[in-house]
């Protein structure tokens, strides 16, 4: 389904915004286009936008409408994401550009619809400006998130690609924070430029995704597997909601899929949808225990205290069980040296 836009509104928007030629689409007859960026596969008439509401058909050419116009730019540490195996204690420049392609009752961060865009402050920050800011402030990472970064694919790709070619920005790590609903072809190309991805998984059955988002789970898992196959570091976030996950089916299915497809060294972060909900917290702790019992080495429950040592926030060596990264509210102690524990065990991640 596409969203009709009045021609006078289109003319106003074209005047005030700089559009970017979109990636991954085909031109069709009668100035129609077929968007191939995500599995929605939108067929878009001239003057309309796709389901994401941020990719517009302008006279038979698909345009990314908000290129270089983030609605938020701020600094975060990797632990804030949470991203536990990439440059602990280091800050990154984090930003988001309007756009989403999963709309449903389980979406945590709603993104404004097209008609509401005028109320969001849009900063002009093109890739070179973002890179200069990151270099100037000694940021070690750039986080693409807040909204769905797949919907500002061109900006993410251009920024990360230019950084790799810039001697001053070559060491900056690029991290996509996404729900993973993006085509395998687009992910394949993006894998050349990004270093890590944090993927939000809502559940592990098609029924949930179909009911709440009107999509299938399989393309998401395929995209994650493609990232992994291309040596992009993966960490999984899973929001625990008692009304959907109390049968434990999704936990078992997720754990099994991660072991079989991503490997036992892949970190999973189980997080309650509502930290004030006692049942959600208890289920989150139970999910972590199940994952550890299944052989996963790095399973976290950010911001939840488990016993006196707060072990759900600690990275342990899976060989000798030494505490390697101890995350407290105000401080982080990192005992990993050159990617290894003192016992000699290699600890997977990006440490420098």
List keywords for this structure.
single chain; 352 residues; alpha/beta; 8-stranded mixed beta sheet; 3-stranded antiparallel beta sheet; 20% strand; globular
Major β-sheet, in short? 8 strands, mixed
* Record field, number of beta strands: 17
Enumerate the strands of the largest sheet in spatial order, edge to edge or round the barrel: 7-8-9-10-11-12-13-14
- Unreliable spans: 1-12, 107-120
| DSSP summary: helix tally | 9
Strand content: 15-25%
- Roughly what is the average pLDDT, rounded to an integer? 89
Round the Cα radius of gyration to an integer and report it.
21 Å
Q: What gross morphology would you assign? A: globular
Q: Helix/strand/pairing class, anyone? A: alpha/beta
Helicity level: 25-40%
Distance between the termini: 45 Å
The sequence of SSEs as H and E is HEEEEEEEEHEHEHEHHEHHEHEEEE
